[in-house]
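A quick word before the example. In earlier lectures we treated sequence and structure as two separate objects. From today on, think of them as two lines of the same record. Here is All-trans-retinol 13,14-reductase written that way.
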Amino acid sequence: MSVDIGMYEFLEYFISRPWLILVVFLLYVIMYALSVMLTGPKSGKNPFSASHIKPVGDLVTDKQVRDRVIKQRFKLSKVPEQIDDIVIGSGIGGLGAAAILSRSGHCVLVLEQHDQAGGCCHTFHEKGYEFDTGIHYIGKMYEGADNRVLIDMVTGGKVEYPRMSDIYDVVCLGDPSKVKKYNIKDERKAFAEELIKEFPNEKEAIEKFMVMLKESRSYLMGYFVLKFLPKWLASFLSATGIMGLVFRPWSKYTYRSTKDVLDSLTDNDDLKAVLTYSFGDYGVAPSKSPFGLQATLLNHYMGGAYYIRGGPSEIALHAIPVIEKTGGRVLVNALVNKIILNQKGRAIGVEVKTGDGSAQIFAKRIISDAGVSNTFKKLLPTEVAQKSKIYPTIKSVGNSLSYMSVFIGMDGSQEELGIKGQNMWCFNRSDQEKAMYEWLDLSVEDAAVSEVPLMFVSFPSAKDPTWAKRFPNKSTCLIITVGRYEWFARWDADKVKHRSDEYEGLKNRMGRQMWNQLTLICPKLEGRDDYFEVGSPLSNKYYLGFDEGEMYGLDHTINKFLPAAAIQLRPKTDIPGLYLTGQDILVCGFSGALYGGMLCASSILNRNLYNDLTKVVKEVKAAIKEGKKTA
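And the structure line, produced from the sequence above:
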């Protein structure tokens, strides 16, 4: 008992003196840094340099030329002889890690199961239309921004990011035939002023919300640190409360849900709906997401929302030559069946499905961008996976929702159709969460004939300044809503594009319902659909490789951001030689997966790439400032 009391008094002494806790924290960090420098493995070469950023060139529009880069089919003869790293999957998390490691001199082989590299950055063509699939807008892509400099390290600066409309999102609330529209602006002051204009009686609540947004700008730093520090140190700092004291935004806004925070500010359901409208960007309802995540998302677009000139496939087109420069390759139609372990349990290679069987390829390290669930439930031996500390984390966090998508090609220009370079978020009720779950609880037959409660609408053709020249008098639209794998599970075993008429009928009725609701909001679109294709969770499973067509890999509920999961979901696994990259180890979205790639490369190279990136960002900003002076 005396020991317990003594420990209690000891902790109370520290807690009552926050400055002392901070000193202890800093000493631990310094000790860790010294231990790495004096006894740790030698750091790899710095992959980042301002010299990597080259001028943007002319857009490559010749399909054959592009396909020779992004559609290199797998053949054993194309596999490099001496491989440092094999990356499973070519999403931006995989390509990002591969390109960064290549900048450090590594020979990297990227294996993609689809027929085109890029993951959610890929595009496809049908009936003379080009469609994007997963990248609809990106924040913080202005010159000199950290995000921009990092992606320039991956692509050599060859990709341009046009800024979208200052009203980058429009929230549509209510009956589609008479919706109330709310404009979301991309500057902090304008955003707040627009909200106050629409909700004059809620000025106090809005001002408090803006203060919370400002506090949350460094929210992800605490989450990032939990993954960067050694597990023992991260666990110690979390258990003692030091993490919460040093990284206040993370501790303040991880344990409170988005709904809880907004309920404390206002009773106005319409205002709450507008402030949480973009929860579809991470796929978690407001009652289950940490407020810090929603705040981070809104902050992400303060300063502009951006698209990609020429479409998202530009990313893979220009990242692949960076990987090839040091002898690496990016090969498609390369389905990895399993990760090969040696007798000591180290990951040493992969088995790839071939036309007449399989082939084994070996490397010093294996990096998985296939998702944590796929990696541990499909690619590793069950007995090995279940012994990993990551395995129970997969269950505690869970997988994200799936989704339905509708791709529409329209005969008409942007001007004719009255569409803009912005997104629309459409909700038929202000109680979005209740409406969503009521719809998801329906049978597939009932859902197919019911009004869809929420829709994300994008007009990719209006965001790309090169579109009108490449595809004159044509436009595209993408509509996305949540969906359930269970609705279509009975047809999972059927061959893709050869499923039953019942399956086609159900998904097409859902797609047509979504289109009909949109044409009520945008009447000029009615009758202009020239191409119409609906994707279900089974489509997502086939093209993206997720087990149940998950939208964002692991779910982004509060559990994912708590220390227990955050510390385990990191690049370096407890299986020697196996690393993880992409959205599952950080957060979803283009930027989240990209930084997941940097975090993975940082772990492999044993160096703080965030510091290296910061130095290059300073160089780039100085050059921009100097250029303005001499202009």
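Notice the following. Residues 29 and 229 are 9 Å apart (CA to CA). We will return to this example when we discuss secondary structure assignment.
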